[in-house]
Fold this sequence. Notes:
By secondary structure, the chain is mainly alpha-helical. Helices cover 33% and strands 5% of the residues. It has helices spanning 11-21, 32-39, 54-70; strands spanning 2-4, 9-10. Strands 1-2 form a two-stranded antiparallel ribbon. Strand 1 and strand 2 form a beta hairpin. The chain is elongated and about 35 Å long.
Amino acid sequence: MWICLCNSFNDTAVKNAIQSYAPDRVIERKDIKALYEICSNGEKPNCGKCLRTTFMDIVNDHNAAIAQKLGVGVQIIIPAANDSTPPKAGAGGCGNCQCNKGGPRCIQG
């Protein structure tokens, strides 16, 4: 499943990044930037919509599995309050990115 349309990576890339970055520990909010950069080959987020949806679900599932393994409470990472703004339309008018590139990464509206 595609996670980020702006920088083209899927759920497998996120899971692989987690396994290479923090396979046996809980991922904290400060780790999210590093995970994103691993998945996107060093690119920064454009609209950030992926960070407010499935990307964080995968991270939270990992944290729940680690917490269960260690017998501790679950640490759920939620987006910051300022991350709740809806994305602006990109070049293709898709509303999913601000990449201004259009093309195969944008879903035409």
